[in-house]
Design brief:
Length: 148
């Protein structure tokens, strides 16, 4: 099993059009990684459980103070292999992709394309490291940690 380069870009774009565009651009042939979506996430006693990613996305988009993470996997051995969208409680969204770390140039190319697509200059490539960030300031610190 390969290890992964994780590519993350933060954006203030918290809308369905951007999320759908991101997924269609970078992971067009995909499947959800969850069967249900609990709110609050990972709660032993969720207040609500959705059966579809669309419902979870709508809730996460509409509640700008909600912190929530959603993941997808590529089908048919496509690259990149995974996509994720992390909604932050300060209204920002971290968009992410994971791909086999045997191809560092490809990861850097994805970072550049994601920044361009999202209109953001804030992003980085890490190694099997989900961002330890709950807001944009913490994400900026993550960028400095992951600089080559």
């Amino acid at each position: 099993m390969p290890s992964y380069s994780d590519i993350y870009v933060i954006s203030e774009r918290r809308d369905l059009k951007t999320i759908d565009g991101f997924l269609n651009q970078f992971l067009p042939d995909r499947d959800e990684t969850a069967d249900e979506y609990e709110f609050p996430q990972y709660s032993d006693n969720p207040e609500i459980i959705f059966g579809s990613v669309e419902e979870a996305l709508r809730k996460s988009i509409n509640d700008c103070k909600l912190d929530y993470r959603i993941y997808w996997r590529a089908l048919n051995a496509a690259k990149p292999e995974h996509a994720m969208v992390f909604f932050l409680s300060d209204g920002y969204v971290i968009y992410g992709l994971s791909t086999d770390d045997a191809y560092p140039e490809y990861a850097l190319d994805l970072l550049s394309k994601m920044k361009s697509f999202l209109g953001s200059g804030l992003g980085y490539v890490g190694h099997e490291a989900s961002p330890d960030a709950e807001n944009i300031e913490q994400f900026k610190r993550e960028i400095s940690v992951h600089q080559p």
